[in-house]
Amino acid sequence: MQELDHKKTIDLLNSIMEFELAGVVRYTHYSLMVNGPYRIPIVDFFKAQANESLLHAQQVGEILTGLDGHPSLKIAPIEESYKHSVKDILEESLAHEKKALQLYKNLLDTVSNASIYLEEFARTMIGQEEMHSLELKKMLRDFG
Q1: CA-CA distances (angstroms) from residue 16 to 32, 42, 81, 98, 111?
Q2: Rg (CA), the chain
Q3: Digits of tens for pLDDT over the chain (144 positions)?
Q4: Angle at 9 between CA 68 and CA 18, to 5 degrees
């Protein structure tokens, strides 16, 4: 086992927390902007994504404070495309999930061989983000 790089880990956890909190805002916005015949299930999907992003931010914050870090009060920047078709929103969501996946992969690289708990946490989150990406890709198939 190697020594955990506390500063790098804390900085990365803060970046993840900011990104997950931005996801809460992003997915809440999307849930409000959906129109059309499939509105209800898609709104429910985005509300669930917002809730999950908040849960992830809270989980990351607990780990961060457990490492004597100080959670950021910021959220990651959110671009407003002003495109609100279901296809556009799903594509933006997929891009968001890919960025989240990369952040968790960076966490895994940072904590590998230094903390089993943090490795397992990162792997679990990577699995969840990959599952979200697959789900979004399936939702986008009809838009070919």
Answers
A1: 24, 25, 22, 13, 14
A2: 16
A3: 899 999 999 999 999 999 999 999 999 999 999 999 989 999 999 999 999 999 999 999 999 999 999 999 999 999 899 999 999 999 999 999 999 999 999 999 999 999 999 999 999 999 999 999 999 999 999 886
A4: 85
Q: Checking phi first, is residue 108 left (phi over 0); if not, alpha (psi -120 to 50) or beta?
A: alpha
Pick the closest to residue 94 from 55, 49, 41 (CA basis): 49
- Answer yes or no: are the C-beta atoms of 109 and 8 closer than 8 Å: no
**Single-letter amino acid, residue 37:** P
- The CB density around residue 67, as the number of other CB atoms within 10 Å, is 15
Q: Which residues, including other chains, have CB under 8 Å from residue 100's CB and lie 6 or more apart?
A: 16, 19, 20, 23, 129
Return d(Cα 118, Cα 110) in angstroms, integer.
9
Domains and CATH numbers, the chain: 6-143 (1.20.1260.10)
**Helices within 1-144 (DSSP H only):** 6-33, 39-66, 86-111, 116-140
57 close to 19: Cβ distance less than 8 angstroms:
no
